[in-house]
Amino acid sequence: MKTRALVVAGSLALTLSLAACGNDDEAQAAEAISASMMEESDEDFPVDQEQADCVGEGMVDRIGVEQLQEYGLLTDDLEVAGQVTDVTMEEEDADHAADVLVGCVDAQAMLTEQFAADDTMGEQEQECINEVLDNDALTELFSLMFQGREDEAADNLMGPLMECMTG
């Protein structure tokens, strides 16, 4: 009986330690993605720490560490390889990544601000652009980009934007 109790206790301890390692890996991966986003942040796409943390945690939660490693976003050492936006994903994971990005970062406000800085556009054109660049459109745009379909993403966006510009 003692032996069986020791085996059960040992198995339980091993299970708990493996689960803890998984949580450590997830935390480390999320932190690496967050840090990478902070490094990539610039005046065109400014990201604060809270937004970067949200993206890191969201991508790890929705896609998973192993899958992010398979895509080449994360190395075996759980460091980011390249840029978050350079990864090509399968459609479902790209949808998850786009949902996370749009949910964590107010991309619509950023783009609206960039267009508003263009003093050659009138108020009506800017309002039209704001309507075209809603969260659903941006989620689709980012999903296509995460799938490596940048040309299609640009084509889908250019038509409606050109309509805004030409009235």
Your description of this structure?
The protein is mainly alpha-helical and about 170 residues long. The protein contains eight helices and no strands. It has two domains: about 1-85, no CATH class; about 105-165, no CATH class. The longest helix has about 40 residues, at about 1-40. The model is unreliable at about 1-20 (pLDDT under 50). Keywords: Signal.
Secondary structure: number of strands: 0
State the helix count. 8
Mean pLDDT: 81
Order of helices and strands: HHHHHHHH
- Taking the alpha carbons of the first and last residues, their distance comes to 83 Å
Stretches with pLDDT under 50, minimum 5 residues: 1-22
Helix content: over 70%
The helix-and-strand class reads: mainly alpha
- Count of domains: 2
Main β sheet profile: none
Instruction: From the alpha carbons, calculate the radius of gyration and give it in angstroms.
Output: 21 Å
Identify the quaternary structure here: single chain
List keywords for this structure.
167 residues; mainly alpha; 2 domains; 8 helices; 74% helix; disordered N terminus; signal
Entry summary:
With 167 residues, this protein is mostly helical. Helix content is 74%, strand content 0%.
Question: Mind sketching the topology for me?
Answer:
Elements: H1 2-40, H2 49-63, H3 65-70, H4 91-104, H5 107-116, H6 123-132, H7 135-146, H8 150-166
Helix pairs in contact: 1-2, 2-4, 4-7, 6-8, 7-8
